[in-house]
Design brief:
heterodimer, A: about 450 residues, alpha/beta, 4-stranded parallel sheet, globular, B: about 400 residues, about 45% helix, about 10% strand, disordered N terminus, binds iron/sulfur cluster
Chain lengths: ~450, ~400
């Protein structure tokens, strides 16, 4: 790897404290999980440990002046992995640091910066962390200009931010419809992304290594697909606590194409299989099987999801990030690999799949999940950032009416519990369950 | 916010020097016609066109390559929510976190107020507008619907992608309406639309005067009418107006400050009237119904008209907030306008819930702060001007500028 002509930032020990705090927070969670011997806690512990390791790796790179980048789960992490580039997401806190204690304080600080109140909180937080020097400055940034306007504007604002103005940025342009022409175009964008990363990090992409990574990811998605089939069982073997979100973290963030991630998925599968055999679910009696059609409310997840299980016997059977439509990548040659990556990252990846293009996926995903998973209730949380999704609420309601399954649109902020408080959510859900005769 | 004189900071020499004090407004028949056209969906000229069997195609965004529609012999009509009084029907489709423009325009569509259209064309402008396409497709019986996939970057691969999109659009017009838009027809339409742009720029030139002969509210009416009338007729009227104003020495001298307005869809002159009633004369803008659609021409020297269109829409015209990588150029455009039009302060407006303009307002604010330009951000609703609050905010802004 050559670092000739490459810019390196002077390491400032006072920067990215929030990132370090986050690592410590995950470490703390891991410690708690270590005291819980049940299989689900142990599955969560392994994912938490994997997460901490990545945080440590990024911190080390920053301290030692080694290249690392910022990227996204849906911007071909297979490529960063194949290039040997450690990476993190500038949206890591809102997406991963579930219920971190400083979240509310940071949201207020973002507002004070002049970012308003109706721009997705995840975006406002990320911009605030950069402005406040709380997040590590990468050698290069892969931005995201889809699926939403909020993300596009975030990355434009990051590009003009005084502190990060010297960080080179690239974002692949997303075509709107799903067709072969779109795949070809996006594959071209990914190739341009590779050239950009090579130029700014000195790392090179080796095709054989990329093939190896993609081969392993194909295995991972195959196991994930089998695992999601197990969630069709009655009772559902796992609830909100383990499953989709962690599998997402393994396959698309921390263990993309790595055997350790594959092993974790095998353990997840084995645990679910055992439970299906024993007819064990996350609650003693499963009374409601629901589809949570979004990210989990990571800012306050512990204040809502356990209550749904305990109070209503309501089990999260499927959610947006566990939904598994992944097409294996054809490994024959460079062209097939890039086209496969284009399809996977643009048309299969969660949230990107539903929100980027026409609203048809909102309807077709609901139809598929309701039928395949014997769903009693579809919850559209209505995150304040998901303007396109909330603009599709009528379409979702109508498909649910056709399928004769209740549909509820809550209207909340996945990260800020003051927008609609957990108590208000519970009240709304309780009234709805009662009115629908659920539970 | 500072009371700095922007010209002193940004510009080498203040323009408009040596012009005479002007004090009266021009009364123009053409202007009246334009103003009427903004107050209704189907203006008399458009009605006449329809009566003669002419076709009209709705366009949901200024990135729809209207020239293709004109070349087919139809009138492109920019979608609005004019005349809407509520959003009850739209609210069964979308939600309260969606912008009021799309809620009102969809509501009108659901109520049949857009039944005069022969087709509607979208680009994926924003998360709100692109969903209207999904609802329209499911609920409203308009014969021809199309969404053109608009890139979010402004580089060569994106020009090429859009070139193909424009070609596919042209083909779909042929498939649906049986009209082949030949290159020759396309060049003719491009020239016609460039003529509109040239006339509109001439109108803006007059606003550089110390005492502009036309207000910001009146100018907005001129611009809106241009998206709702048969093109030749509009150009003729506009030429009349420009001639009248050019020859007149009347102008607005009773203002406290020269204002630049920036933002997304603003089609209601009443909003600007409130700003101007406080003494803030709007002399230029960066708006969808403003400079962004006419400051540049489509290159008539390009060999292929489809490539000329693609290059214009993606790379050449002043871009919208949604175009990634182009913010520095947008910011430079605003600063150029400030100098050219001798602007004292900038007002940025956005519709509540609009992420594109939230982000853009924030970035522009930071840039103008660095440049020492007085700047204020205002939120608004599409239908309700909110005159009381607007007046107070504008007054405070002018006072803060020391005006
Ligand atoms: S609005 Fe949704 S898709 Fe966009 S940044 Fe926020 S969480 Fe992500
Ligand atoms: S105002 Fe904003 S949200 Fe509304 S249509 Fe325009 S860009 Fe979209």
């Amino acid at each position: 790897m050559t670092t000739k002509k490459l810019r390196q930032y002077k390491y400032d020990p006072d920067t990215f404290n929030r990132y370090r705090q986050e690592r410590d927070y995950f470490n703390f969670l891991s410690g708690i999980l270590a005291t819980m011997p049940d299989s689900m806690s142990q599955l969560s512990k392994e994912i938490t440990d994997i997460t901490v390791e990545r945080y440590d790796q990024i911190v080390r790179c920053a301290e030692e002046g080694k290249p690392f980048v910022a990227g996204y789960f849906c911007a071909a992490p297979e490529i960063y992995e194949a290039m040997g580039l450690p990476w993190y997401m500038i949206m890591a806190t809102p997406f991963l640091a579930a219920s971190a204690p400083y979240l509310t304080e940071d949201i207020d600080a973002a507002e004070a910066m002049g970012l308003g109140t109706d721009w997705c909180t995840a975006c406002r937080l990320s911009l605030y962390y950069i402005e406040a020097g709380l997040t590590p400055k990468p050698w290069a940034l892969i931005g995201l200009i889809h699926p939403c306007d909020a993300g596009n504007m975030l990355h434009q604002a990051v590009a003009r931010n005084k502190k990060w103005r010297d960080v080179p940025i690239f974002a692949s342009d997303p075509p709107y419809f799903e067709d072969q022409r779109g795949i070809d175009y996006y594959a071209g964008e990914l190739r341009r992304m590779v050239a950009f990363l090579e130029e700014h990090t000195g790392a090179k992409l080796d095709l054989d290594r990329l093939r190896e990574v993609c081969r392993e990811t194909n295995k991972q998605y195959e196991i994930l697909s089998e695992y999601t089939q197990l969630r069709r069982a009655h009772p559902c073997p796992h609830g909100w606590g383990v499953g989709g979100p962690q599998a997402f973290a393994a396959t698309q963030v921390f263990q993309t194409g790595r055997p350790r991630g594959t092993r974790w998925l095998q353990q997840l599968y084995a645990d679910a299989e055992e439970r299906v055999k024993n007819k064990t679910g996350p609650v003693p009696k499963e009374r409601i099987r629901y589809f949570w059609f979004d990210l989990l409310p990571f800012g306050w997840v512990f204040e809502l999801m356990p209550w749904l299980e305990q109070e209503w016997g309501a089990v999260l059977v499927m959610e947006m990030f566990g939904l598994q439509p992944y097409t294996p990548i054809d490994l024959r040659n460079e062209e097939t690999i890039f086209k496969g990556l284009a399809k996977r990252n643009l048309y299969d990846s969660p949230m990107i799949r539903q929100a980027r293009g026409p609203a048809d996926y909102f309807a077709s995903d609901i139809a598929r999940v309701v039928k395949d998973y014997d769903i009693d209730l579809v919850i559209w949380p209505g995150h304040m950032g998901h303007k396109d999704g909330s603009a599709s609420t009528g379409i979702m309601r109508e498909i649910c009416q056709e399928l004769k399954v209740p549909y509820i649109h809550i209207g909340l902020d996945l990260f800020d519990k003051r927008y609609t408080t957990p108590e208000e959510c519970k009240d709304k859900l309780s009234k709805f369950f009662s009115a629908m005769g659920l539970g | 916010m500072q009371a700095t004189k922007p010209r002193a900071v940004l510009c080498e020499a203040p323009p408009g020097k040596g012009e005479s004090e002007l004090s009266t407004k021009v009364k123009s028949k053409a202007l009246q016609e334009f103003q009427e056209a903004t107050q209704m969906l189907v203006n008399p000229a458009l009605q006449r066109w329809k009566d003669q069997g002419g076709r009209v195609i709705g366009c949901y965004c200024s990135y729809v390559p209207e020239e293709v529609i004109t070349a087919a012999g139809f009138v492109p009509f920019r979608m609005r929510g004019t005349g809407s009084t509520g959003t009850d029907m739209a609210d069964t489709c979308v939600s309260s976190i969606n912008c009021s423009f799309i809620r009102h325009s969809l509501d009108l569509g659901l109520r049949g107020e857009y039944s005069f259209l022969d087709g509607v064309v979208w680009v994926n402008s924003c998360d709100h507008v692109r969903r209207i396409y999904d609802h329209w497709k499911r609920k409203i019986d308009t014969p021809y619907l199309r969404l053109i996939s608009l890139p979010k970057k402004v580089d060569e691969p994106q020009v090429e992608w859009f070139r193909e999109e424009v070609s596919l659009f042209r083909e779909s017009m042929k498939d649906h309406f049986g009209i082949f838009v030949s290159d020759e027809r396309l060049w003719k339409a491009i020239k016609l639309h460039n003529e509109t742009r040239r006339l509109q720029r001439q109108l803006y030139e007059l606003r550089k005067r110390k005492n502009p002969p036309i207000t910001g509210a009146e100018t907005l009416a001129v611009m809106v009418a241009g998206t709702a009338m048969p093109r030749e007729e509009y150009n003729k009227l506009l030429k009349e107006l420009v001639d009248e104003l050019s020859q007149s020495s009347a102008g607005h001298s009773d203002h406290r400050a020269r204002i630049m307005l920036i933002g997304g869809i603003l089609d209601d002159p009443a909003y600007i009237e409130v700003i101007e009633s406080q003494g803030g004369l709007v002399v230029t803008d960066s708006m969808c119904f403003g400079t962004r659609i006419m400051w540049k021409d489509i290159d008539e020297k390009e060999k292929d008209p489809v490539t000329a269109l693609a290059r214009y829409y993606i790379a050449d015209r002043p871009s919208c907030a949604r175009m990634f990588g182009d913010q520095p150029r947008r910011s430079a455009f605003i600063k150029d306008m400030i100098c050219e039009f001798n602007v004292d302060g900038v007002i940025a407006e956005r519709l509540v819930m609009c992420d594109n303009w939230t982000g853009e307002q924030f970035m522009t604010g930071e840039d103008l702060k660095e440049a020492g330009i007085p700047y204020i951000r205002l939120d608004r609703d599409y239908i309700n001007v909110g005159a009381g609050q607007l007046r107070t905010r504008v007054q405070a802004f002018l006072e803060m500028m020391g005006r």
